Amino acid sequence: MPNPKSIIHRLRPREAALFFGPLALVFAVYYFFSTGFLLYASVQRISMALVNGRWVGLQNFKLLLGDPRFLTAFVNNIVFACVSVAAALTVGFFIAVTLSATYRAKTLLYMVFLLPALMPLSLVASVFRTMLETRFGAVNLFLNDVGLGWMAQSWLIDPTFAYGVVIILFVYIIGLPILYYTANLSTINTSLIESAVIDGAGTWRLFVEILFPIMKGTHRTIIVSTLLTSFRAFDIVFFSTGGGPSGATEITGTYVYNFSTTGTNVGYGSAAAVATLLVTLVLSGLHMRFARKDEQR
Amino acid sequence: MNPSHDFLYRRRHERFAMTAFLVVLAALWAIPLIAAVARGFAFNGVQNFIDVLTQNIGGVSLLRTYLNSFVIAIIHALVVVSVSALAGYGFTFFEFRGKEALYHLVLIFMAVPLTSILIPLFFITREANLRDTLVGVALPEAAMTLPFGVLLVRNYAESLPRTLIEAALIDGASHRRVFLDIFVPLSRPALINLGALSIMWSLQDFLLPSLFLTDVTQTTAAQAVLRFKEVLGATPTGIGRYNASLVLLAVPALLVVLFGLRFITQGLTAGSVKE
């Protein structure tokens, strides 16, 4: 007689349809079809009407890799991602640890840091944009009021400042790393810290030699999720600088968006999309591999 | 960490310095929030907020955008929670070949950036005649959230008492019954967390509504920003009302975050721990 456990856990066709059918349907339509569509369109010259495509082989990809604007977008993506990660591991870590050792106004402070990350990014970026407007923006008005009018700038028109603005926005949405650190801090065994204190470790050493290494797993979660978020941070750039001035702050998201919505050559847009998709899928695959290794350990 | 953590900053001057630093950072973070609210009162004071709430701006009624956003968010949450619950159960309580491979295939799509599949999404929505419908926005949103949903539900399901489910199955209950009568009630905490997150994420979405909803009466709150900026953002007197509209457009998301914060934080951390 076969083991009853294996019988009750056996997946029969009816149950497969019930439990996995809906998921399979959504995935088939929205992911598998989409991926196939992109792969197909990326080797065609084809318009948004999606008829009369002409096979052009890898030409779209060659054009893409030869477009300095795409390369800028890609490099910007990496730069913004690195800034976010660096900010998360330093400022975010510090805020989370200090917050958890604070008594007063803990919830209020926590909300102030968390809220920007949980709001629609289109609104957050729009607020930044209107604050930095040259003529009526709050920043320039404030500088004029306090007699520092000479410091007022066209923040969003100057490429260097615009770049800085986007970087500040990426740092501004630091809420999720703080949330992850806070959650992990609550699971730490306090006796470890107590014994370190008894041994005479100062605040700095507690931070650097004990707390930071303990949270290795959280660091990795944060690094990967922040990297992936940066590829999805379309709204931030679109609503603050719009990718400008002249493509200086463009990221892959805004680049693909421009070719997807206005481009007459959908094939080219698809090639850009395929390139982005590949990078993110590889990142995600690497992450899952690491995660599994950790679990086995 | 326990509140007994005086050790972290034991010396008085350290405590003082750290608190001061934290307060300065918090002040910096609060500046944009305060500036938006303060600028909302420019020129006309409270009247700005009243105008934005009661008048149509560029054909868009703010209150209507709230309704549209919430309808999409609710449909999105219902689809995500039910499909994730089914698949989460399936991945936990069935044994079959290739299960883990399939599970990882699902998870890997968590990373897909929405912008990169815009063209096919546009095609699918057009062919399915779902343009200019709220469902047409909610469905692709649900597809984007599902990988996370499956992860969240499975993580939770693995922690449930397996013997309870097995006992019911051995007694002859069908998987459908076990799912409805035992699994769903037991998983309620995880499903509520997922629902709260789904609503929040849907309220954040700008791209899909702006792509698929061309009718101004269907505009969502996150999408309306663009319209309001065109109409109000250009003139100096409009800036007050524009800022007022930015503040008011944030209200639905703000309410969800304030009332659902516990579920949102639980859901996010549960999803990150065992990825």
**Large-scale geometry of chain B:** globular
* Number of domain units of chain B: 2
User: Main sheet of chain B?
Assistant: none
Overall CATH architecture of chain A: Orthogonal Bundle
Greatest interface (CB-CB under 8 A), with counts per chain: A-B, 102 and 102 residues
Q: Strands across the major sheet of chain A, in which order? A: 1-2
Instruction: Return the CATH class of chain A.
Output: Mainly Alpha
Structure overview:
- The complex is a heterodimer of chains A (297) and B (275).
- With 297 residues, chain A is an all-alpha fold.
- Chain A has a single domain (59-296), classed as MetI-like fold.
- Helices cover 74% and strands 1% of the residues of chain A.
- Chain A has helices at 4-8, 13-42, 59-66, 68-100, 106-118, 121-132, 138-145, 159-172, 175-185, 190-198, 203-214, 216-231, 234-240, 252-261, 266-296, and strands at residues 44-45, 54-55.
- Chain A has a two-stranded antiparallel sheet.
- In chain A, helix 9 (175-185) packs antiparallel against helix 12 (216-231).
- The longest helix of chain A is centred in the N-terminal third of the chain and has 33 residues, at 68-100.
- Chain A is flat.
- In chain B, helix 1 crosses helix 12.
- Chain B is an all-alpha fold and 275 residues long.
- The relative contact order of chain B is 0.15.
- The model of chain B has no long low-confidence stretch (mean pLDDT 86).
- Chain B is globular and about 70 Å long.
- The longest helix of chain B has 32 residues, at 62-93.
- Chain B starts with 11 loop residues before the first helix and ends with a helix.
- Chain B folds into 2 domains: 12-40; 51-273, MetI-like (MetI-like fold, Orthogonal Bundle), CATH 1.10.3720.
- Chains A and B meet through helix 1, helix 2, helix 4, helix 5 and helix 6 of A and helix 1, helix 3, helix 4, helix 5 and helix 6 of B.
